[in-house]
Design goal:
The complex is a heterodimer of chains A (548) and B (197). Chain A is 26% helix and 16% strand. Chain A has 13 helices and 16 strands. With 197 residues, chain B is mainly alpha-helical. Chain B contains 7 helices and no strands. Classes of the chains: A alpha/beta (548), B mainly alpha (197). Chains A and B meet through helix 2, helix 3, helix 7, strand 5 and strand 8 of A and helix 1 and helix 7 of B.
C-alpha cells in the first residue's frame, strides 16, 4: 500500500501517460503514488468556467477555462501580455512553440481533441528510408500490440474497413472497440471535395464513445465542445481515470510540485522532492519513478535536478535532454465560401486527410496532415455581422450566412528532430522560485519547403474545390500542442535519453515515457503513440520490479 | 481525496512572495485599459475617460429605466427576449454609460413617432452618433451575451445569447448535446430557412 511518502511506483504527472502506467502497476499488485503539480477540479466547474468566458475568448483560448494555481503555472492566452508570462520562447519560430497544456489533475487530455492516430511503419524509419531524422529503435510490429491496448484503455472508435483505417491495410491485433462517429454536413462536403482531388478524408480514430457508453463514460451526444472540455466525459480524459486508480488503492496527491529528482548510489533514483502550496518541501521515496508531466515539464524537471553525479541534469549524460523539441508546425487558412458548408455538427475534429503525410518526397520536405476544423462558427458569424452595423432581419441573415459559409482549414507538418530546438532553464522564475522553461524553436527548411511547394498549394486546391472566394493564410507557423522529442529514445546511450522501454539510459529505475521519447514527430496527433509507449514502459517497469 | 503530506523534510525556504511574477497583476491592470476601450462599444456619449462617479450614476438606473430598456430592446430586436437577461444587461450598460436612461427615452420617442413595431421601421431615422451607437450596443449585447467582448467581460447570457439562434437548426450551441448518440445529420436545410426564435 502506498503512503504519502513512499510507494513501489511513484508517478509524477496525472495525464494520460501517468494514469495508464499507474493503473497497470496497480493491476500488477504494486503500490502507486501519483504526484500532480496542479489542483483537482470538477468537470462541472470547468464547464461553468467555459460558459462564463466572453465570446471572443471561447474560441481559440483553450487554456481559459483552466486558470492555473500560482504554484503550477501554464500558458494563459487571454491577453497578449499574459501569453508571454510562463513559456519563454525564442528563435525564428518562437510563436510555433506556444504550447497549451493543463497543470490540473488529468493533464492536457482535458482539452485534447481526442484524435488517436497510429503512426506508420515508415514513420518509424525516416533515416533508413529517406535519409532524414532518426529511426525508432524498434519496428511497427513491436508497437502494434501496445497501440491496440491503448485503444482499448482509452476507448478509441474507428472504422472496421482496413482500407479506411490508418495505416491502411496494416495488420491490427484487434478491431477498434467502437465504430466511427458520423460526419456532419461540413465534414461530408470536405470529404467529397477532397476525393475529387485525390485526397482521402478519413474518419479520424478518436477517443470518444461512439453510439454507446464505454468504460463507465457516456456516449458522445455531439456537444461540439471536445476542446476546451467535454461536458459529458464522452471523450476520454485522464481525469476520468483517477477515481479508478484510487479505487484500486492508488494514491493521488495534488498541488504537489515536484522540483527535484534525487539520485543515489549507482545513480539509482532515490526520491523526488516537491513543494506544497505553502512551499514546504516534501520527500517521496520509491522503487520505480515515472516522470510523465508532459514534453516540456519533464525535461525541465530533469534539468532542474543537477547533482554531483549528474552535472548536466538527471538522465542527461548524452546532453540530449531538452533538445530535439518537436510539434507539428501548423498553418491555418480562413475561407469565405459561396455555398454553405456548415460546421458545428459532431465533434470539433472528426476527420483528417493523412495520406499526404507519406511519400518519397520526405527525403526533401515534410509530409503533412490536412483537416477542417468543425467547431460551430456561429460566434464568429455573429461578431462579424454585428461589426457591419446590421440590424433586424438583415443581421440574422448575415449571421447565418457567415456562420455557414466560412471555414478554417488546417495543415500540420512533420518536423525533424534537431538538437538546436532546445529547452533550457530560463533565468525567470515562477511563483515558487522554479525556473520557467525557455525554448528555442526553428521549424527548419524541411518544413518551410513543404509549406512552399507542397502544403500551401494543396490548401489552395482544397479551397478552390470548396468554392472559396477568400483565402487568408496565417502569416506564420503556429503550435499544435503536440509536444515531443525532449527525452528522445534510442538504442545508443550516447545520442539518446531513454531506451526502447522509455527507461533512462543513465538510471535503471527512472522512466520518462510520453511524447518526449518519440524519435519522430510525424504529421499526426501524438497522443495514441504516447499512450502506447506508456503501456510498453509499464510492462517493463512491472517486469523489472518482479524480476529485478 | 485531496491529501496533504505532513512535512517530513522541511527546507527553510520561506513563504512565497505575495506578488507572483507570472502575471495576475498584469491582468488586473489590463482591466482598466479594457474598460476604457470598451466604452466606445457601449456607445453613449463618446466618453474620453471613464466617469469618476460610475457607481453613483448607476443608482439612477431605476425599475422604470429597466422597463423602458426592455421595451426598447423589443423594438430593436425582433425575437423573444428573456427579461432576466435584459435586466442584467441594462444595469451593466448603465454603469458604463451614465446617459443610458435618457438615451433609451429618446430612442423610444423616435420609435413612437414612427409608430415603429420593428427595428426596420425606425432605425434609418436614428441620427449618426451617440444615439445610434447606443442602439447598436444594445443589440450587440443581446446577441453576444456581453456588454463588451473584452477578455474579462462578465457574461450575462450563454445559451440565451441570440448569436446561437440564427443557426440553431444546424449548428450546436457548444457544450449542449445536439442529439441522441450519433443521431446528428449531415444534411442541412437551405440558408433561407431562418429558424423562429
Amino acid at each position: 500500500m502506498a503512503t504519502d511518502q513512499s510507494a513501489d511506483v511513484v508517478v509524477v504527472g496525472t495525464g494520460v501517460v501517468g494514469c495508464l502506467i499507474a493503473e497497470h502497476a496497480l493491476d500488477a499488485g504494486l503500490s502507486v503514488l501519483m504526484l500532480e503539480a496542479g489542483p483537482r477540479v470538477d468537470r462541472s466547474q470547468i464547464v461553468k468556467n467555459y460558459r462564463r468566458l466572453p465570446p471572443s475568448v471561447r474560441v481559440g483560448h483553450w487554456d481559459a477555462p483552466y486558470p492555473p494555481e500560482p504554484w503550477a503555472p501554464h500558458l494563459e492566452t487571454r491577453t497578449a501580455k499574459q501569453q508571454e508570462e510562463y513559456l519563454q520562447l525564442e528563435g525564428p519560430n518562437a510563436r510555433a512553440y506556444l504550447q497549451g497544456y493543463v497543470r490540473y489533475a488529468g493533464g492536457a487530455t482535458w482539452h485534447w481533441a481526442g484524435l488517436s492516430w497510429r503512426i506508420t511503419p515508415e514513420d518509424m524509419r525516416l533515416k533508413s528510408l529517406y535519409g532524414v531524422g532518426r529511426d525508432w529503435p524498434f519496428g511497427y510490429d513491436v508497437l502494434e500490440p501496445y497501440y491496440t491496448r491503448a485503444e482499448y484503455a482509452i476507448g478509441v472508435c474507428g472504422p472496421s474497413d482496413p482500407t479506411l483505417q490508418w495505416p491502411a491495410n496494416t495488420k491490427r491485433s484487434k478491431p477498434y472497440p467502437m465504430g466511427p462517429i458520423p460526419f456532419g454536413p461540413g465534414e461530408r462536403r470536405l470529404t467529397e471535395v477532397a476525393a475529387k482531388l485525390g485526397m482521402i478524408n478519413l474518419h479520424a480514430p478518436q477517443a470518444r464513445n461512439s453510439g454507446a457508453a464505454y468504460d463507465g463514460r457516456p456516449a458522445c451526444c455531439g456537444t461540439n465542445n471536445c476542446f476546451p472540455v467535454c461536458p459529458l466525459a464522452a471523450k476520454y480524459d485522464a481525469s476520468s481515470a483517477l477515481p479508478k486508480i484510487e479505487a484500486k488503492g492508488g494514491k493521488v496527491l495534488v498541488n504537489a510540485v515536484v522540483y527535484r529528482i534525487e539520485s543515489g548510489e549507482k545513480n539509482a533514483i532515490e526520491a523526488v522532492h516537491y513543494f506544497d502550496p505553502v512551499k514546504r518541501s516534501q520527500r517521496v521515496t520509491g522503487k520505480i519513478f515515472v516522470i510523465a508531466c508532459n514534453g516540456i515539464e519533464t525535461p525541465k524537471l530533469l534539468l532542474l535536478s543537477k547533482d554531483e553525479r549528474n552535472p548536466n541534469g538527471v538522465a542527461n549524460s548524452s546532453d540530449q535532454v531538452g533538445r530535439n523539441m518537436m510539434d507539428q508546425p501548423k498553418l491555418i487558412v480562413e475561407l469565405e465560401l459561396q455555398e454553405p458548408l456548415w460546421t458545428g455538427v459532431g465533434p470539433v475534429q472528426s476527420s483528417s486527410i493523412v495520406g499526404t503525410s507519406q511519400g518519397d518526397f520526405r527525403s526533401r520536405h515534410a509530409g503533412a496532415l490536412f483537416r477542417m476544423e468543425n467547431f460551430a462558427r456561429s460566434p464568429l458569424g455573429a461578431a462579424a455581422a454585428l461589426k457591419k452595423g446590421l440590424v433586424g432581419k438583415a443581421l440574422d441573415t448575415e449571421i447565418r450566412r457567415i456562420s455557414a459559409c466560412t471555414a478554417q482549414l488546417t495543415v500540420e507538418h512533420e518536423i525533424l528532430p534537431s538538437p538546436d530546438n532546445r529547452l533550457t532553464l530560463s533565468n525567470k522564475r515562477d511563483w515558487l522560485g522554479i525556473n520557467k522553461p525557455n525554448i528555442y524553436y526553428d521549424v527548419g527548411d524541411y518544413v518551410r519547403q513543404s509549406a512552399k511547394e507542397y502544403t500551401v498549394p494543396r490548401l489552395k486546391e482544397l479551397a478552390a474545390g470548396l468554392g472559396a472566394t477568400s483565402f487568408q493564410l496565417s502569416p506564420e507557423f503556429l503550435n499544435s500542442d503536440h509536444i515531443m522529442g525532449g527525452c528522445i529514445m534510442g538504442a545508443d546511450a550516447a545520442t539518446s535519453v531513454v531506451d526502447p522501454d522509455c527507461r533512462a539510459h543513465d538510471h535503471h529505475n527512472l522512466f520518462l515515457p510520453g511524447g518526449g521519447a518519440m524519435p519522430s514527430g510525424t504529421a499526426l496527433n501524438s497522443t495514441l503513440s504516447m499512450a502506447a509507449l506508456a503501456l510498453k514502459a509499464a510492462d517493463a517497469a512491472v517486469d523489472q520490479l518482479r524480476h529485478g | 481525496m485531496v491529501q496533504r503530506l505532513k512535512p517530513v523534510d522541511v527546507v527553510a525556504v520561506g513563504v512565497p512572495p505575495t506578488i507572483r511574477d507570472d502575471c495576475p497583476t498584469v491582468f488586473a491592470l489590463g482591466r482598466r485599459e479594457i474598460l476604457a476601450g470598451g466604452l466606445a462599444f457601449v456607445g453613449g456619449l463618446g466618453l474620453a475617460t471613464p466617469p469618476a462617479g460610475l457607481a453613483a450614476e448607476a443608482t439612477a438606473w431605476s425599475g422604470e429605466s429597466a422597463a423602458r430598456f426592455m421595451e426598447l430592446s423589443s423594438l430593436l430586436i425582433p425575437h423573444r427576449l428573456n427579461e432576466g437577461v435584459g435586466s442584467r444587461i441594462g444595469a451593466a450598460m448603465s454603469a458604463l454609460n451614465p446617459s443610458l436612461a435618457e438615451q433609451v427615452t429618446e430612442l423610444l420617442a423616435i420609435a413612437r413617432k414612427k409608430n415603429a413595431r420593428i427595428v426596420e421601421d425606425f432605425f434609418p431615422d436614428l441620427p449618426e452618433g451617440p444615439l445610434k451607437e447606443t442602439a447598436l450596443a444594445i443589440i450587440s449585447a443581446w446577441y453576444l451575451g456581453v456588454v463588451t467582448d473584452a477578455p474579462d467581460a462578465e457574461v450575462f447570457a450563454y445559451a440565451d445569447a441570440l448569436m446561437y439562434q440564427p443557426t440553431k437548426d444546424v449548428m450546436t450551441t457548444p457544450s449542449y448535446a445536439i442529439s441522441a448518440p450519433n443521431a446528428w445529420s449531415a444534411e442541412a436545410p437551405p440558408l433561407s430557412n431562418m429558424p423562429d426564435f
